[in-house]
Write a structure and sequence with these properties.
The protein is mainly alpha-helical. It is 42% helix and 6% strand. The protein has helices at 25-32, 34-46, 51-58, 62-74, 110-144, 166-182, 209-215, and strands at 19-21, 49-50, 78-80, 92-95, 99-101. Helix 1 packs parallel to helix 5 (110-144).
Length: 240
Amino acid sequence: MAQEPGTQGATPAQAPHARTELADLATLKALAQPRRQRILQHLTLHGPATSASLARELGLNTGATSYHLRELARYGFVEEQPEAAGHGRERWWRAVPGDRRFPPRSRQSAEMRLVMDELNHHAHAADLELFEKAQAQAQAQERAGTDQDPWADAFPYSRGSIRLTLPELHGFFEEYIALLNRYKRADADTPAGARTVLTRFLAHPAPDKDTEAASGPPAHGSTAVDDTEAPHNRRESDPT
């Protein structure tokens, strides 16, 4: 799922380069809760918000959003925005940036794998929904005959295949993360006209012919593609 929680508005000191492995089952369970994934996604895309504004946007009640925000804060995924302290009693929350990794599947317990599979299922569904919404907006503008938005061309897409050893695949992933980090910057350094662009990385070995024939299609929700990675390189720098 990756979504990268909290990159919006990050200061240079908050730049999400330091890795943290999320190997604690309680932390993973807290993150995998669907409503918390939606809250994190909203804070990542739209910046800081209050529990009341999140409730309106997500169709929840303020009690629920307040509870989920506190739980996310407990595990370090969100924090109160200090500079918003002058807004009376309103508490503003923002996502915390970070390069959060997940343990490779070989080091996950059976219970952890179930949690990860659930988290991945929701994260991939949310990613697809966001992509389809962006396309629908571009199509609506075309039908309305309005001036063409130059961002209508902002859908770079690539499919390919390469032959790699497992260590090479890990290196390939780290180079991708380094490329993303090259473009991360504070709001003050962001040029006019810039928009938040969602990036997703997915890589996996091609199915073995014999294995594919024997196994048949995967059961619903059973694919184990970690939120933003393949096995070892799962990265939650923009959850949800």
